[in-house]
UniProtKB/TrEMBL annotation:
Compositional bias annotation for Low complexity: 204-229
Highest taxon of the lineage: Bacteria
Annotated region (Disordered), positions in chain: 200-229
Upper classification of the organism: Bacteria, Bacillati, Bacillota, Clostridia, Eubacteriales
Protein name: Phage protein
Signal sequence bounds: none
InterPro entries found in the cross-reference section: DnaD, DnaD-like_sf
């Protein structure tokens, strides 16, 4: 289950105290915490959905949206794409970086249709690494507009952006992609080639490590195909949310490290086993991973296997 941070300072903020009505405060909390929110602070939502979830009429929502856009100047809403951006989102939710956070933000920012909203949110992000990520997408848009001249059949959006019918974005994305790679470089320094593919008996493939087939050697990755193959870290995080884990920045960093060791499929399977046993702590998940690697957990909620694991006490605290 996803969660959003709202500091207690929200209630002592001068703007909230002096300029907002009780209805404004309630609506602002809704914008910060509703189910459509994303990690990047830009999400798609309709006015009808707001009215349904809050319990207001559509006319009341239109009035509140107008107040927050033109009077409080805290949000920006694109009526064409139905995307809403929160100006101070970075103040509440983007204080910590890390590769898992960057991966998640990169995927979400790529899906934003109105790129001008990225600049609107990015200007108020405090973290230097995360602000550079937002800036890379802004530079990508600028490069695109500079490299693609306007033609007669181009269209102009309500925000004045030129949208060509057919665009070759090869050149446009170059500068932005390079900057994103530079941002990731600092986090990739700790990534090593720890994963190896060890051939099964009977395979003709060879490895560049050693010909010694010591039975005590631990192999981290497997050549066995599974339904989880090709998954990214973001897919694993979403899978853990489906398995009722509460995802935080710290947990995502731990899970990303475990993915490097055990692989995507093992982490996702361990999350399923934990959920089946109604255990949703990281320590329990880690214990499942360790025991599966030792061949002691086959999955499922067998009472006998659970008791054996609890007797061992290996990372199965609540």
């Amino acid at each position: 289950m996803a969660y959003r941070l709202v500091y207690t300072e929200f209630w002592t903020d001068p703007k909230v105290l002096e300029e907002m009505t009780p209805e404004d405060r309630y609506f602002y909390l809704y914008l910060l915490t509703n189910p459509c929110t994303t990690n990047c602070g830009i999400y798609q939502i309709t006015r009808k959905q707001m009215a349904f979830e809050i319990g207001h009429s559509t006319e009341s929502i239109n009035s509140l949206m107008d107040r927050f856009t033109n009077h409080h100047k805290l949000i920006m809403y694109n009526t064409e794409t139905r995307e809403l951006a929160i100006k101070n989102w970075g103040k509440y939710n983007l204080n910590k970086g890390g590769k898992p956070v960057l991966d998640c933000l990169t995927k979400e920012l790529k899906e934003v249709k109105d790129k001008s909203l990225i600049k609107y949110v990015g200007e108020n992000v405090k973290s230097e690494d995360l602000r550079q990520l937002y800036q890379s997408f802004i530079d990508m848009v600028k490069s695109h507009e500079r490299d693609v001249p306007r033609k007669e059949n181009d269209t102009v959006t309500s925000r004045g952006r030129i949208v060509p019918r057919q665009v070759d974005d090869t050149k446009a994305s170059t500068n932005g992609e390079k900057q994103i790679l530079r941002i990731y470089q600092g986090f990739n320094d700790t990534v090593t080639n720890r994963e190896r593919v060890v051939p099964r008996q009977g395979d003709n493939t060879t490895t560049n490590t050693s010909t010694n087939t010591d039975t005590n050697t631990t192999t981290i990755t497997s050549t066995k195909k599974s339904s989880y193959s090709g998954k990214s870290n973001i897919d694993v995080f979403k899978h853990l949310e489906k398995c009722n884990f509460i995802m935080s920045t710290m947990l995502m960093e731990k899970i990303a490290a475990d993915i490097e060791i055990y692989g995507h499929s093992e982490v996702m399977k361990a999350a399923e086993i934990s959920d089946e046993n109604s255990k949703h702590s990281y320590n329990y998940l880690k214990g499942v991973l360790e025991n599966r690697r030792r061949g002691e957990v086959k999955g499922g909620n067998s009472k006998q296997s659970i008791k054996e694991l609890e007797r061992e006490g290996l990372g199965f605290s609540v």
